Amino acid sequence: MYENIKFEVKEGIAYITINRPQAMNALNCDVLDELTCAFGKVEKDEEIKAVILTGEGKAFVAGADIAQMNQMDAVEGRAMMIKGHNLMNYMESIEKPIIAAVNGFALGGGCELAMACDFRIASEKAKFGQPEVNLGIIPGFGGTQRLPRLVGKAMGKYLIMTAEIIGADEAFRIGLVEKIAAPEELILEAEKLAKTIMSKAPLAIAAAKTAINTGYGLDMKTASALEIEAFTAPFSSQDKTEGMTAFLEKRAAEFKNK
Questions:
Q1: Which CATH number fits the domain that encloses residue 215?
Q2: Average pLDDT for residues 216-223, to the nearest whole number?
Q3: Strands across the sheet with 105-107, in order?
Q4: Known catalytic residue: 92?
Q5: Residue 132 a catalytic site member
Q6: Catalytic-role residue among 112, 178, 185, 227
Q7: pLDDT confidence of 258, banded at 50, 70, 90?
Q8: Which domain holds residue 145?
Q9: pLDDT tens digit sequence for 170-218
Q10: SS3 251
Q11: Which position among 34, 92, 132, 189 bears the catalytic label?
């Protein structure tokens, strides 16, 4: 079904691996289409509760496919950027947690793809950067917007305008990643995080992701109203009753996503 990615599901976790190691997993239009298809399956499959996204070989994603982009005119380039934006906006809209297990280079479009995930766990060997200005362009898959939101406006400008490549330690220091792991433990750490979140009430996790992503950047009054609405659905659920009853009875809750 897929030529550029691997997709498998184990114990409720979807593992999506970008599989173009000969091209350092560079994002071309076909990869973007396949990722969109894979995340469509994630959204619709009720058995899938979380996603781990990673890359095959030495790179997470070394960037967009420059060989393909070099042949594009402005109209074609814009169409590719829209395709990338649509994918990454879609990832943010999916109510299930998406974890980027950044195993190596996450540059340009790769850094942008990681930032569209809910969490980023980086290998000690990972490298991050937005080097597009070296090529006469700017980040085009959301980097000018997501990076400043994660690391602050001035640091976002610094990384984009200098094209500096940073390691995992610096990425952690500035808030670009949430955790660093030894290379051999990267997927294990991602699985631990996924399973921790999967043990919570699914409706509550979905509501929390929606409230945070939608409310972020809004004025506080509007965002507070949004939170009240997001709160209501899980509050009326069986999961809420089970969670609170289990707490009072001092036992583990058994959530049913209802």
A1: 1.10.12
A2: 93
A3: 59-61, 105-107, 127-129, 166-167
A4: no
A5: yes
A6: 112
A7: low
A8: 5-198
A9: 999 999 999 999 999 999 999 999 999 999 999 999 999 999 999 998 9
A10: coil
A11: 132
